[in-house]
C-alpha cells in the first residue's frame, strides 16, 4: 500500500520530513498545513502536494497519517485530535513539557487504539545504529557503561530558551532517550550538575548551558551524559558503549573526509555544524521506519511512552542538579 | 527553467541517474528508453516518467537533454544522433574505446554546436572536491606529486573483460582524468608496469589486473596511479596531492563511522563496497552540475575533450607497460 | 651537579625508576634497598648500584635524594624519616590512605624544610602535556568541562583490593589529580555513582569496580571521570578538555600504529595493555623533572599537597557514591 | 656473554648508537673513536667509555665488535680492516657508492669469515615490523603490491648532495631495501621518473629531488616508491602492503597523539620531523638485534649482500629515470 501523509507545520523540520516522505517508497506526501501561507506554498511547490487546513486534513480520506511538526505547545492537542480522527501519528519530540499532559495524551492515544511514534531521530542514525548492532550482536558483551557527548555548535537565542523547557527537557532529552535505548534497562537513579558558562543571558532566564548527568539502573549499569551549548568546532555528537567484552564508539561526522597537512600541522575540516545536516540520514531512516511499521501493521520503533520516559528523566535531572541529591524514579 | 531529461539505458547507472535527476531542482525526468521493457518499466514506475524509443526521444519537444547510459559501443553513435537532434548531451565514460572514433564524435559535436559532458563522476565527489579546493585555495602550494590509489573490491567476469577495452581504458581511465584534473598541466610522459596476479582468466584474455603508472608533465610534476582488481576490504579510493606547501589527502569511506574495540583488537567496518554506493553523492552532484551548466548557458565542467585525453593516456600506458619504454604524448 | 639517588623498594615501579634514573643526565643511581635480597640484587646487577639498608641510605653522604617505592602503608613513615635526614624525597602515590596521616607527613616535611614530590606520573605523559599546553597557550580558551576516561585492562586480585583503599583512593586518585591540573581551579562539589559489575569478589569486599564522578568548581567548571576495572581492548586512558574556544583531546596509544584491512573489516592492534608500558615516557619525564627541580633549586612540579587534595577528592567521591548526596569540600 | 663494542665516528648517528648500546643488555660500550677530539670526549663523558684510535680499537682485546659510523667513503676500507682484525662489524648504510667496491668488501668479509650487518634501520621500526608480521602471519595473503612513501622534511644542503651519490643511492636506498624485504622476491625490472621541483641547486648538481619508481619481480609483484626532498608537515614515512587477502599499512608518527578542535578545524601536531627522533625505537632495536645475533652465533638480520642489492636497485633506477627505459637486473 502507499501511505498518504500530511505534514502539520512547514518549518525547517517540516521541510526535512517533506523531502524524506517524497523519497520514501510506500509513502506519498498528500498535504501540507501551516498558518504562514508562504511556508506552506514553498513545500507545496517543491514536492507537489496540496495545501490544506488542519481540520481539513483530519477529515481527508486520502490522508492516512500525519507528521506533527508544529510548535511544542500544540503537540498534545494535535495528537489527541488526530488519534480521534483515526490517523496514524508521527510527532516531533517532545510530546509536551509537562509529564502530566504527556500522560493524558498517551491515555487518549491508547483509548482510541491509535498509533503514535515520537521523533527521536538519533535512534535512526546509521552510526548509532551500528553501535546498537554491536550490542545486539554480542560484540561488546553485557552493557556496563554508556557515555554520551552532545554539544551544540552555539547557544539558541533567549527567546527560544524561554519556551524550550530548559536544557534538560530541550537538549538532554535526546540523550536520555539514547541512554535508555543503549542501556537496555530503565534508569532508577539520577545525579547531575549544571552550570552557566556559555551565555550569561541563559543563566538570567534560570536555565543552564553546561551539564553533566549520571544515570544508574537497578542492576548498576551507568550512563554519563555531557552537554554544552557551545562547540566552536561543529555539532559534537558521540556515543560510547562499554560492556563486558569490549567497547563500541560512534565518532563524529566531518564536513569532508580529507586531511590537509602543512607546516602548521595536520588538519581536517570541522564537524558538520547543523543538526539537520548531521542527521540527514537519520531523518530519512526515521520516516521510512514509521512508514514501514504502519504499512506492515507492526508497532512503531518509538512510542509516546518513550517520550514520557525521557521527559521524566529530564525532570529528575533538573531536580538533581538543583538539590545536589540523587533523584530516584518510581 | 526546468530541464526535461531523458535517459537512454535503464541499467544500474541509468537508475542511479534517474534518482538523481528526480531529486535535482531545475530538472525533470521526462522519459526512459531501454530495449528491455521490464527495466524501462521499473524506472518509469519508480520515478513517474514515460517510456519512449530512442528515436522518439530524439524527436520529443519536451526533452531538452539526454543522459546516455547504454553500452559503450553505442555511445559515439548516440552522441552524434543527439548532437544533430539539438539535445544537450550527458554521456557516461568512455565515449568510445577508439581514440579516432572519439575524435570523430567530438568533431560532430563541435560542428553542430552541441553540448557534451562526459561522466567523470569522481570530479564531483565531495572529498575529492575538498582536495581540489585545497589546491585551488593555495593550501598545498604548487602541486608537485599526485598519488591515486584505486582498487576494485573484485574482478569483473571474463565476459565483461572482453568488451571492457582492458584495465587501462576501463578502470584506470577514471584515474587518468583525476590526475589531469589535479596536476593542472597536461601529461607528457607515461611509464607503467602491468601484471596478472588476481585472476588468471584475465591474463588469458590478454588483460592485466594489477598495474602501476607514473605520469609526468613537461615541468616535471608527477602522478602515480596504483590499480588492482582486488580489495577484500572494500572499494579502495584514495587521492593524495603533495605540493610545495603541504599535502592534501582524501581518505576512504567506511560503511559506518564506528569503532569496536575488543580483546581481538580495534576495528571499524569495511569500506563501502560498491562504486554506486561509494559515489552516491558524486553522481548526484554530477547531474546537478550538468543541469546547472545547461540551464545557465555555461560550459559543462567536463567535455568530450576530457574523455579523449583520458583515453589517450590509457593507450599510452598500455604501450608503456607492453614495451617497457616511456611513451611521450604529442 | 649530579644528584645521587637511592631507591627504596625494588618492585616493578622501583625497577622502572632505576632505569629512568640511570638514563637521566644529572642523576646517578647510588643504591637500592629491599627486604627481598634477590629483588635488590637484580636492580644492582642491571644498573651497577650498591645494595644498602634504609637506615644506611638515610645516613649516606653520597645519597642526596630518595625515591620511595615501598608499599603504601610505609610511605608516610619513610617521608618523615628522610625529611629529617635532609634528603630530597620523591614518593609514589598515595602518600597514605588517611588524609590525617598525609597532613601530618606534610607538616613534618614543612617543619624540616624538606622537598617532597608525589608521583602523579600522568602529568608527565607527552600526550597529556600537549593537552595541557593547548590550555596554557589559549587554544581551547577558558576551560569549561573536562572528561577523563580511565579503564584498567583487568581487575586486580582480591588481596590487592583489600589493601588498596578502594577504587576511588587507588585508581580514581590519578584522575582526581588530572582533573585538578586541567581545571585550574579547586573542586568544590562532588557527586558520584558506583557499581559492582566486573567482579563480584570486589563487591563482597565492599569496593566498586565501575564508577562515574562529576566534579564542580566554584565558578561552575565541571569534570567527569569514568572508571572501570575492565577493558578487554587494553589500558584505556583518554582526556578531553572543552573550553570557550575549542576542545583538546589526548587519544589512546596503540601497540603499533598500523592498520590491517581484510574482508573482516579494518583493524588496528589493541591499546597498550600495561600501565608501565603505556606510561614509559611519563615515568622517565617525571624522574627528569624531579632531578631538574632539585638540581636547580626550583619547587617540584607536584607536592605533598597535591597528594592530599587528590585523597580528599577520593574520600568525597566515596561519600557521595554511598549517600547519593553532593559532597562539598571545605 | 657481554659484547664489547667500539664506535667509529662520534657524529649524530654515532651518538645514537652509543646511547642504544649503553641501554642494551648483553652489550657494553668500550670505546669511541673520532678525529675530532671534542666529539669523542662528549660521547666518552655521556656514556663512560674510553677514547681510542681506530688502530688501537682494531688491536683491543676488550673490543669484540665495531659500529662503523664514519663518512661513507671510509666504510669499505674500515669493513676490510676490521674483518681482518677479527671483529664483528655493524656498518651504517651505504657500504659504498660503487657496487664494485661493495662487492670487493663483501668478498673480503667472506674470505675472513667475518660478520657484517648493514644498518637498514627501518626493518627494525615497530610499525614496519607489524606490517611485516601481517605478511608473515598470513593476514594479507600473498603479497601483490607494495607502496612506500618517503618524504624528507627538507632538502639537504648542496655540499651534502655533492657527496651523497644522488637521491636514489642516498635516500631511495632505504626504500629499495624495504621493498625487497616486503616483496619477498628479488626485483627484476625497474622503471622510474625523476624531477627537480624542490630546490634548483639540486638540479644544477645533476641530482633530482622528486622521484617515483616502480619495481617488478619475475612473478609480477610490484612495488611503488614515492620520494620527495620536501614535506612541510614533517618526516613522511608510510608503507602499505596489498595482498590477496587484504592490506596492511604503517601510518605516520605524530609528535603527540592529540587532537585540537576549534572553529578553524580539527588538527593534530605535525609528524615527527627528524629521522633520528622518528626512528629512535628502530635504532635501538637494530643494535639489540646485532648484539643478539652475535652473542647467539646466529646470522645477522641484514648483511653486506642486502647493501649490495639495494645499491644495484639504486643504480638501475637512476638509469631508468635517465633513459626512460625499463632496466632489467641480472
TrEMBL record, chains A, B, C, D:
Keywords: Oxidoreductase. It comes from the Bacteria. Residues 128-248 form the GFO/IDH/MocA-like oxidoreductase domain. Residues 4-120 form the Gfo/Idh/MocA-like oxidoreductase N-terminal domain. GO terms for molecular function: inositol 2-dehydrogenase (NAD+) activity; nucleotide binding. PANTHER family: BINDING ROSSMANN FOLD OXIDOREDUCTASE, PUTATIVE (AFU_ORTHOLOGUE AFUA_2G10240)-RELATED, NAD(P)-BINDING ROSSMANN-FOLD SUPERFAMILY PROTEIN-RELATED. Belongs to the Gfo/Idh/MocA family. This is Inositol 2-dehydrogenase. The lineage of its organism: Bacteria, Pseudomonadati, Pseudomonadota, Alphaproteobacteria, Rhodobacterales. The gene is idhA_2.
